[in-house]
Write a structure and sequence with these properties.
Blueprint lengths: L13 E3 L10 E3 L1 E2 L2 E4 L6 E5 L2 E3 L3 E4 L2 E4 L9 E7 L3 E2 L9 H4 L20 E3 L13 E3 L11 E3 L2 E5 L12 E4 L15 E8 L2 E10 L4 E6 L2 E6 L5 E2 L5 E5 L4 E2 L3 E4 L4 E5 L4 E2 L2 E3 L4 E12 L6 E8 L4 E7 L7 E12 L4 E8 L6 E3 L6 E6 L2
Parallel strand pairs: 11-12, 14-15
Antiparallel strand pairs: 1-9, 2-8, 3-4, 4-10, 5-6, 5-9, 7-8, 13-14, 16-17, 17-18, 18-19, 19-20, 21-24, 21-33, 22-32, 23-31, 25-26, 26-31, 27-30, 27-32, 27-33, 28-29, 28-31
């Protein structure tokens, strides 16, 4: 007959195991929902066969039960109950399917975590959630959360907001879009940094945009070096921008012919691009140069000229045809803006037609050469 009595599976801390189909053997596997189950021990197992609760006529070894007799195929297992928490064995890889999990499989155009709280693999057009569960892995062509298009997956693209504009192919992994004002906000502590980092594997801060809330300054770094800073008053400084000022510190005779004008002293050279007598352009661009050269003994015979001498041009900045009316001191001043390719050079040269006619004066910054990158 069947078991008569209280439904003990309703008692707290009791687990109902899968019933056994007897076949005349003494040893049978214990399972719960088709998964191997290891009970806490023999005394935690209650078994009913043909309506009779078994007492002391079996043993337990791991996830198996061993009877002292051989139940036949005519015998019926009414129930197997376990008191206390047992141990579920870890199933082998790929041995568990959606049916065993009790999940409903792939859903299309349906709900996700909307009350039933079951795990689902999702593909299709719409995903809805009833709380803040927004970590979703899926695929599809236009998936949304809450029906508001505030998070959408387009293949491997994550889109926040809604819109119709296609993003550039090299920048479409995360897209923030909208039909009105659209933005991204990063907030940090009052004395801390709010930053965006760009880099590569193994070098995660090659480039960074860093706002210092303590000093209210925005700093841009490239190649892990400060490239530009905008302070709290809007002043812009560029520590690596090409800019130099050099000067001569002593008199030197020119002699006849053409020679470079040497500059022994640097007042500053921001990017270390000047090495006497030449400036070397670090990048292709437009450069502005200024010069002032004071000449001594200009009343002598002959003539002289001073040149800007870029590697791609020759620009005469000054010419003096001396005669008896010329003064002892003359100053040549000029400025230019020229185009230069990377690694082009620019220097100052002087030419004299007669030996010892001219002397370059180096006193008190009277002879100098300066320049900087314009654009």
């Amino acid at each position: 007959m069947t078991y008569v009595g209280r439904g003990i599976d309703a008692i707290s801390n009791v687990e109902k195991l899968d019933n056994i189909t007897f076949d005349g053997s003494t040893t049978y596997n214990l399972t719960k929902s088709s998964v191997a189950f290891t009970p806490s021990g023999k005394n935690n197992i209650l078994v009913s066969i043909n309506g009779v609760v078994q007492q002391g006529n079996f043993t337990v070894a791991g996830a198996t039960i061993i009877f002292d007799f051989s139940p036949s195929s005519n015998d019926t297992c009414n129930f197997i109950m376990h008191y206390g928490t047992g141990v579920l064995n870890v199933p082998a890889d790929s041995s568990v399917n959606m049916a065993q999990l009790g999940a409903s499989g792939t859903k299309s155009s349906s709900t996700f975590l909307a009350g039933d709280n079951t795990f689902k693999t999702v593909s299709g057009t719409t995903i809805n959630t009833n709380a803040d569960n927004r970590v979703i892995t899926g695929s599809g062509t236009s998936n949304t959360l809450n029906g508001e298009a505030n998070l959408r997956f387009d293949g491997s693209t994550v889109r926040v907001g809604s819109g119709t504009t296609s993003a550039q192919a090299n920048g479409d992994d995360v897209v923030i879009e909208g039909s009105a004002n659209t933005g991204l906000t990063i907030l940090s502590g009052a004395d801390d940094l709010a930053a965006v980092y760009l880099g590569q594997n193994g070098a995660n801060n090659d480039c960074k945009f860093e706002y210092d809330n303590d000093t209210n300054a925005l700093v841009v770094h490239t190649n892990a070096t400060e490239a530009m800073k905008i302070d709290s008053n809007g002043h812009v400084t560029k520590p690596k921008q090409p800019c130099f000022f050099v000067y001569a510190d002593q008199q030197s005779g020119v002699g006849s012919g053409t020679r470079d004008i040497p500059f022994a002293n640097e007042r500053f050279d921001l990017n270390a691009d000047f090495s006497t007598p030449s400036f070397t352009a670090p990048v292709t661009g437009k450069y502005a140069f200024q010069m002032s050269v004071r000449i001594v003994n200009c009343q002598a015979g002959g003539n002289g000229s001073i040149y800007f001498q870029p590697s791609n041009a020759e620009i005469r900045a000054w010419r003096q045809d001396t005669d008896g009316d010329a003064g002892t001191y003359e100053t040549a001043s000029a400025s230019i803006v020229i185009d230069m390719d990377a690694n082009d050079t620019c220097k100052l040269q002087i030419n004299s037609s007669v030996d010892a006619d001219f002397i370059i004066d180096g006193a008190t910054h009277s002879t100098y050469f300066s320049g900087y990158l314009v654009a």
